[in-house]
Automatic annotation (TrEMBL):
Species per Swiss-Prot/TrEMBL record: Thiorhodococcus drewsii AZ1
Location of the protein in the cell: Cell membrane
Keywords, alphabetical: Cell membrane, Membrane, Protein transport, Transmembrane, Transmembrane helix, Transport
Signal peptide: none
Record's bilayer topology term: Single-pass membrane protein; Single-pass type II membrane protein
This protein's GO CC annotations: plasma membrane
Molecular function via GO: transmembrane transporter activity
A Pfam family recorded for this sequence: ExbD
The organism's place on the tree of life at top rank: Bacteria
Name of the protein in its database record: Biopolymer transport protein ExbD/TolR
Record keyword Protein transport present: yes
Cited Gene3D superfamilies: 3.30.420.270
Length: 130
């Protein structure tokens, strides 16, 4: 007779908490990957007259050895030209050069940007004392 008795429904909350934590971690990881140019491992030069620009669409990293990388992928000047032409002339480019980068390498990257038709070029700096 006990088999036929109607039992009260129970809601198990532990699996629901597990799913909520999984979703929280998922959204945190996706948000961290959406932040552009995180973790550039270079020491930027400081500037007292720098101004904040709108967020760039392409961040070109230039290290002290003259290596160029975009989105953590090393490339040559010709490959950079192709990438910038592909993105279009309205692309905003920020060059994040290391403090010890040669000015000749910086000028070469700026020339490549201009050859690709990009006119909105910025140079990343840090605040003095930072």
């Amino acid at each position: 007779m006990r088999y036929l008795e109607r039992r009260k429904a129970r809601i198990e909350i532990v699996p629901m908490i597990d799913i909520m934590f999984f979703l929280l971690v998922f959204f945190i990881m996706v948000t961290l990957n959406m932040i552009p140019a995180t973790g550039i491992g270079s020491r930027l030069p400081s500037s007292a007259s720098a101004e904040r620009l709108e967020s760039p669409q392409v961040v070109v990293s230039l290290d002290a050895a003259g290596m160029i990388s975009v989105d953590r992928q090393d490339m040559t000047l010709d490959e950079l030209t192709a990438v910038l032409r592909e993105r279009g002339t309205e692309t905003r480019v920020v060059i994040a050069g290391a403090e010890a980068a040669a000015i000749g390498d910086l000028v070469a990257v700026m020339d490549v940007c201009r050859l690709a038709g990009v006119t909105r070029i910025g140079i990343a700096t840090r605040e003095p004392g930072a």
